[in-house]
Amino acid sequence: MNILILGPQGSGKGTQAKAISQEMGFFHFEAGEILRKVASKDRKIKEYIKKGKLVPDEEAFRIFEKFLRRQIKRSKGIIFDGFPRTISQYQLLEEWLAKNDKKVDIAFFLDVSEKEIIRRLSARRMDKKTGRIYNLITNPPGKEVKKEDLVQREDDKPAIIRKRLESYKRHTLPLLAMLEKKKILWKLNGEKPIHTIRDEILRILKTR
Ligand code: AMP
Asked: Could you give the dihedral angle defined by the CA atoms of residues 162, 8, 154 and 58, in that order, rounded to the nearest 10 degrees?
């Protein structure tokens, strides 16, 4: 089963994708995480991320495909978090899945207001040692994480957040409209508590 989790930055995609993948035994595909790793060795990718711009579709897909190739055979399901973000990325994914006799089965959209997104992203912190993402308000780190290791991601600063949101509106909203037309999109209120959203997603997945 191949599941997409879509929503603006800070909507909780990563948190839900992690919880669902653990519960269902699926592979959690984290696009941002993969690109951040590649960026540590590739200056061009690093610049896109720093500026809050999307890595161009073909280039991003070339990177993602290498990871997916390894997972598609061995995983009973994949949860896509942060990819696809554009119609063109969706088409690349759909074609690639079809070659592997698979398809996108279902997509979830976490709907969160812009005001809430800015509030959440300003409170988001990354553990610089592990790369794990926390939120001082909704998902605080445990005692094992040292305060001095928690940093704010450069691209979570207000000017870049605005750019990322613009990019989301321009590129990802049309993708949502397309998935809605295909009748594979479930809209969820992303402002509900984390466990409520998780239970709702699991309930929907278990009826399929
Ligand atoms: P995220 O952690 O998901 O917010 O992603 C961080 C950054 O990685 C984004 O602002 C983009 O620069 C890049 N990125 C993540 N996912 C994609 C994608 N599917 N396509 C292109 N660029 C991406």
From this structure: -100
For a mutational test of ligand 1's pocket, the pick from 43, 54, 163, 171, i.e. the residue with the most ligand atoms closer than 8 A to its C-beta, is: 54
Backbone phi, psi, residue 154, to 5° = -50, -40
Query: How many angstroms separate the alpha carbon of residue 144 from the centre of ligand 1?
Result: 28
> Which pTM does this prediction carry?
0.90
Task: For residue range 144-189, list pLDDT tens digits in order.
Answer: 999 999 999 888 888 888 888 999 999 999 999 999 999 999 999 9
With beta carbons less than 8 A apart as the criterion, state whether 81 and 17 touch.
yes
Q: Is 6 in the pocket of ligand 1 (CB under 6 A)?
A: no
Q: Which residue lies with its CA nearest to atom 23 of ligand 1?
A: 54
Answer whether the bond into residue 84 is a cis peptide, omega within 30°: yes
Burial of 58 (0-12, 13-18, 19+ CB in 10 A): exposed
- % of the chain exceeding 90 in pLDDT: 82
31 lines ligand 1 (CB under 6 A): yes
DSSP assignment of 43-108: HHHHHHHHHTPPPPHHHHHHHHHHHHHHHHHH-S-EEEES---SHHHHHHHHHHHHHTT----EEE
| 103 pLDDT tier (thresholds 50, 70, 90) | very high
> Residue 19 above 90 pLDDT?
yes
Average pLDDT of the residues in 56-69: 96
